[in-house]
Amino acid sequence: MNIHPVTASAVESFSQTQDPRLKHILTSLVKHLHAFAQDVQLTEAEWFRGLEFLTAVGQKCDDKRQEFILLSDVLGLSMLTVSMNNDRPKACTESTVFGPFYVHDAPHYENGDDVSNGASGKACVVQGTVKNSDGQPISNAVIDVWQADDEGFYDVQKDHLKHAQARGVLHSRADGTFNFKSIVAEAYPIPMDGPVGTLLEATKRSPWRPAHLHFMIKADGYETLITHVFKKGDPHLQSDPVFGVKDSLIADWIAGKDGMTILNFDFVLNASS
After folding, report:
1. Number of domains in the chain
2. At the N or C end, where does the chain have fewer CB atoms within 10 A?
3. Domain that holds residue 12
4. Which whole number is the average pLDDT over 196-214?
C-alpha cells in the first residue's frame, strides 16, 4: 500500500461511525494529518520524536497543570478556536484563552474581600459592573478570577503552598457591581520547565505573557465569558506567546491618591440564544 491508499483506508475505517459530527471530525483529522506528513515529507525519526514530545506533554499534566492546553495556546489553536466560537455583538466583552491554571474549587469571597490571600505583590482594588448589551445590570453573576503573583507564579505552581492565593469566586450585586482587593498584575513567562518550554527555546520565541487578570463570568440566560484584562503599557502586549491580547481588553491600572492602585473594568455579557 502506498501513501494514498493508506489515507483512503484510514478514512474508510470510520465509515460506520454513528455520530455524524464525530465521523466528520475524525475523517477530516486523518486527511489533514496525512496531508501534513506528505507536505513535510515526514521521516520515521521525526515521527518518533513527535510521539516522544506528545508523550512528555501528557506526562507533565496533573490536577494542577494542563500542559496540553499550554501547547494548544502557543500553537495558536486555543485562540483560533475561541475566535471561531465567540462571534458576539460588538458591544459585548471579547473572549480570550482559558489558560492552564484554572482551579474548579477556588474559595468564595464577598464583595470587598481580599482574594490575594497573602500572594506577593502590590495591593490593588478591582471594580466594575456586569451588564448586558442593553446596558442593564446583571445581578448575582458568578465571577471567577485568578492571576499570578509578582514573581510570575500561580498558587498551584507552588508545591509548598497549602491554600489558594490570588484566585477566588464572588457574585455581582443587585446593581451588577462588584469589587475586590487583589495584587497588581505583572508580566510573567509561561512555564518553561516542560516540553512546551523546550519548544519555545528551540524556536527562539519569547515566553513572556503581558500582565493580566483572568476572568470567567457566568449568569443565567447569558453565554459564559472567559477572558483576561491586560495592563496598558505592558511591553509584551505585541508578543504574547499565546496570542490572547485584544485591544478592547487592555485597561489602565491607575494609582489612587492614597497609593492604592485601582482597576475599573465593566463586563458585557451576551444573551444566550
Report:
1. 2
2. C
3. 1-42
4. 97
* pLDDT value at 22 more than 70: yes
Residue 90 and residue 194 in one domain? yes
Q: 35 and 105 share a domain? A: no
CA distance 251 to 231: 6
pLDDT tens digits, one per residue of 90-133: 999 999 999 888 998 899 999 999 999 999 999 999 999 999 99
Residues with Cβ within 8 Å of 61's Cβ and at least 6 positions away in sequence, in order, are 67, 68
101 and 217 belong to one structural domain: yes
Q: What's the pLDDT score for residue 124?
A: 96
Pair 36, 118 in one domain: no
